[in-house]
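task queued by scheduler; priority normal; single chain, no ligands, no partner chains; default sampling; output format set to structure tokens
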Amino acid sequence: MHEPRDVLTSVRLELARFPTVLDALLKDLDAATWCARPAPAEWAPVEIVCHLRDEEVEDFGARVRVILDGGASFAPIDPERWATERRYLADDGPRALAAFRGRRVASLGSLVAIAPARLAAAVAHARTGQLSGLDLLAAWVAHDRLHLAQLGAVLARTWATRWAPLHTEYAGPIPYASA
């Protein structure tokens, strides 16, 4: 088992680093690129950032609070439905990114006063079984990184499409099939 203090310390550092990475990756995107889907069923950068913004409060932060408050269950979430109902594709990318940054600052603030041992408590989850606060913290960082990879793939496809018929595939396989 991992030492709760070590997990919490590492997670806080990684969660704090992520907004800077996003800012660098998304800085100066034009409106068309913010809304460009690499394939019809895939998310555009604005949708990914809106998802990160909402997950910050309604998934990871909320579920860690359930653990810390001694709750018995997690509220259900439906990120795919949120994307449609909340009209992520029509949102403003820079505004969504700023909102994410603000929510991340608040999340980091809430993690400062946690006694690490309290994160060993767990709540049953239908898909994964028991989820401890430590599981949730580690998954939070993994979630950031999965969406970072997704953003990288979307931006690679958008770049390749923009400059077609130049041979961008020389760099390696470009994610998502070209339209």
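post-processing summary
- Residues 1 and 77 are 29 Å apart (CA to CA).
- The chain has one domain: 4-171.
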